[in-house]
């Protein structure tokens, strides 16, 4: 291998690495010289050692909280309090139930309606084959429990489902830039992480069957004393009361499915973003993937209660951990106090009670004493803590409910207090307001997810080569639609709008009611666009574009104007016909590129409308079809139309 200056040969082979990875070929180490590999390893190690101490305290706290969520190793005589589990799952269920809907909207005009419909159909189809519902649960769970959930989206399955392959990253194995407030920052990249990564595990044969890996023969068995993956597994095993297995796994041979600990690291090398994978305790380079996603990391992060300029934000355990611990302490103290009250201790007068066995318990037992029985035996004075447990437990429970907007009624339980129907409705509406804010915040990450989904198709779906067949619900039933790259990739990248399913449906109903109130009046006006009103009404009622086109087929003028838009988009002026419906043409031309030719053509239509109004004699009336002309040979032998009296 040649030795050159650090990164020099890497820069020259950037395109070669990308080509080999896209084609599924193994990236041989010969194209990355030894000195460059050492320089990359040194850079990653420096960055890792900056990130690890910064996240260690938070990670230790998060792993310890797993025992509070589901502690199966607690003392058998003790009772655990489920406050965190109850509140956490109430919040999670409310957010997971309200599915966020992605709707694509074109920006370039020409042909966008078809691309919009294809993208919406493809997104709905991929939602199922990607397992998005299961991914959303895990993503939402991580977000609510750890404060920020992470999803990696950089793989594209060309052999099987022909779709992007999202993957949930365990936040407890992720370390990141201490200065970062989010993965990619704001729209200008401010606050985005400079570097970061996560630990994962894979066997030799798993790596051998994956493209892009090299040097895997150099991987060796060995234990990393700072293995994030082992720590996370150990904490979960303790919470679930299962045996910790990493030590026993050391008995496996290298080629017997032994799991190597690998670090996937995102960093910038010579101004280009890369994914670097290291093995052997970050000492061996086994993968180098260039990332071409417009300067963005292919990680989508989701937050629940974000704090401005802060990565971690606030999570449900932050608001419930201390209260659950206190409730568990009071609950167990109350039980001990109640037991002590039942099995009490007593002081007795030895001068009056001579035989100690007389104090043993027996039903209907009589004990003889010498002298007055008063004060022969009295109970030992002790604390009656159990009498105050309910009050303290309720105070802590109410504090957690207020912090997370999870009142008893939201948890599916009747309220302890008698409330009127108006009060319950008011409480429910305020809870919905709090949850709708969280749903909107989730919408940020959902929008980023579908934008990355679109970039994956734009990058990996090959023009004139790849084709994907999706099932869509057509007007006549389910149908299969073949899609190529030109059907789903617009000239200008489209926008994606994310809305809550519940909010979107309520908004559609309000818009429909408002539109219906004026549609009847507008249809009575001969100058209004009747076809637009009817199509708009059908769209608000959930009709798809194909169904609307079947119900209201495009007119000749609409089809002609659509063809003229293609000329206008390339700067050519189409000819205006004497019988053109100028209103229809002006409406359709509004979707064309608003260049000088489009503006001039539209002004010409407007001028002809004025001329047609002022000089009717210059515009002959439309000629009726030959078969309708009175007295013509084609109609001479036809019977006269019947009247109602006949």
Protein described:
This protein has 646 residues and is of the alpha+beta class. It is 46% helix and 14% strand. It has 20 helices and 14 strands. Strands 4-5-6-7-8 form a five-stranded antiparallel beta sheet. Strands 3-2-9 form a three-stranded antiparallel beta sheet. A hairpin with a 2-residue loop joins strand 12 (468-474) and strand 13. The longest helix is centred in the last third of the chain and has 40 residues, at 421-460. The protein is flat, with a radius of gyration of 36 Å. Mean pLDDT is 78; it is low at 1-12 and 624-646.
How many alpha or pi helices?
20
Indicate the mean pLDDT.
Answer: 78
Major sheet: size, sense and barrel closure?
A: 5 strands, antiparallel
As laid out across the biggest beta sheet, the strand order is: 4-5-6-7-8
Give the number of DSSP strands.
14
- Please state the oligomeric state of the protein chains shown: single chain
The percent range for strand residues is 5-15%
- Helix percent band: 40-55%
Feature tags:
alpha+beta, 20 helices, single chain, disordered C terminus, three-stranded antiparallel β-sheet, 14 strands, 646 residues, disordered N terminus, five-stranded antiparallel β-sheet
Helices, strands, pairings?
Blueprint: H1 8-12, H2 14-22, H3 34-69, H4 83-97, E1 100-105, H5 112-129, H6 132-146, E2 148-157, E3 163-169, E4 174-176, E5 196-202, H7 204-208, H8 228-240, H9 246-249, E6 260-269, E7 272-279, E8 284-290, E9 299-303, H10 316-342, E10 346-348, E11 377-379, H11 386-404, H12 421-460, E12 468-474, E13 477-483, H13 485-488, E14 495-500, H14 501-524, H15 530-540, H16 545-551, H17 556-569, H18 582-589, H19 596-614, H20 633-636
Antiparallel strand pairs: 1-14, 2-3, 2-9, 4-5, 5-6, 6-7, 7-8, 10-11, 12-13
């Amino acid at each position: 291998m040649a030795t050159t200056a650090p990164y020099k040969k890497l820069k020259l082979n950037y395109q070669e690495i990308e080509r080999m990875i896209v084609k599924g070929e193994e990236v041989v180490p010969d194209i990355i010289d030894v000195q460059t590999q050492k320089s990359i390893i040194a850079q990653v190690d420096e960055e890792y050692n900056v990130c690890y101490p910064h996240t260690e305290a938070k990670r230790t706290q998060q792993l310890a909280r797993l025992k509070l969520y589901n502690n199966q190793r607690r003392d058998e005589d003790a009772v655990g309090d489920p406050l965190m589990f109850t509140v956490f799952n109430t919040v999670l269920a409310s957010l997971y139930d309200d599915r966020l809907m992605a709707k694509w909207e074109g920006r370039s005009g020409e042909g966008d309606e078809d691309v919009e419909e294809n993208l919406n159909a493809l997104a709905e189809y991929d939602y199922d084959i990607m397992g998005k519902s299961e991914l959303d649960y895990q993503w939402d769970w991580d977000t609510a429990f750890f404060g920020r959930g992470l999803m990696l989206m950089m793989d594209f399955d060309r052999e099987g489902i022909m779709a992007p392959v999202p993957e949930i990253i365990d936040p407890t194995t992720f370390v990141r830039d201490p200065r970062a407030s989010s993965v990619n920052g704001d729209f200008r990249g401010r606050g985005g992480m400079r570097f970061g990564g996560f630990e994962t595990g894979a066997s030799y044969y798993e790596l051998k069957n994956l493209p892009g890996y090299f040097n895997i023969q150099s991987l060796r068995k060995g234990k990393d004393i700072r293995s994030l993956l082992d720590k996370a597994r150990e904490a979960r095993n303790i919470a679930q009361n299962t045996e910790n297995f990493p030590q026993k796994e050391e008995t496996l041979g290298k080629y017997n499915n032994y799991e190597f600990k690998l670090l996937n690291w995102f960093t910038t090398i010579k101004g280009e973003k890369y994914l670097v994978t290291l093995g052997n305790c970050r000492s061996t380079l086994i993968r180098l993937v260039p990332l071409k996603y417009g300067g963005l990391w292919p990680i989508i992060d989701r937050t629940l209660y974000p704090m401005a300029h802060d990565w971690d934000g606030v999570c449900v355990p932050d608001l419930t951990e201390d209260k659950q611990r206190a409730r568990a302490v009071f609950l167990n103290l109350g039980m001990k106090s109640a037991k002590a009250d039942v099995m009490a201790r007593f002081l007795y007068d030895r001068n009056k009670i001579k035989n100690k066995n007389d104090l043993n318990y027996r039903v209907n037992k009589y004990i003889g004493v010498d002298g007055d029985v008063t004060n022969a035996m009295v109970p030992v004075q002790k604390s009656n803590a159990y009498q105050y447990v309910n009050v303290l437990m309720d105070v802590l429970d109410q504090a957690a409910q207020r912090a997370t907007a999870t009142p008893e009624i939201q948890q599916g339980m009747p309220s302890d207090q008698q409330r009127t129907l108006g009060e319950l409705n008011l409480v429910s509406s305020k809870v919905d307001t709090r949850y709708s804010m969280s749903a909107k915040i989730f919408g940020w990450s959902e929008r980023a997810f579908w934008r990355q989904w679109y970039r994956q198709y734009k990058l990996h779906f090959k023009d004139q080569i790849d084709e994907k067949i999706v099932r869509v619900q057509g007007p006549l039933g389910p149908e299969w639609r073949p899609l190529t790259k030109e059907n789903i990739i617009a000239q200008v990248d489209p926008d994606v709008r994310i809305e809550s399913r519940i909010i979107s449906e309520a908004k559609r109903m309000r818009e429909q009611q408002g539109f219906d109130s004026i549609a009847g009046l507008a249809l009575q006006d001969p100058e209004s666009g009747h076809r637009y009103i009817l199509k708009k009404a059908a769209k608000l009622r959930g009709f798809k574009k194909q169904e609307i086109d079947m119900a209201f087929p495009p007119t000749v003028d609409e089809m002609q104007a659509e063809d003229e838009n293609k000329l206008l988009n390339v700067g050519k002026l189409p000819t205006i016909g004497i019988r053109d419906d100028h209103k229809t043409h002006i409406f359709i031309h509004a979707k064309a590129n608003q260049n000088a030719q489009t503006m001039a053509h539209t002004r010409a239509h407007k001028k002809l409308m004025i001329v047609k109004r002022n000089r009717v004699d210059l515009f002959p009336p439309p000629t009726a079809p030959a078969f309708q002309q009175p007295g013509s040979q084609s109609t001479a032998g036809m019977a006269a139309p019947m009247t109602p009296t006949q």
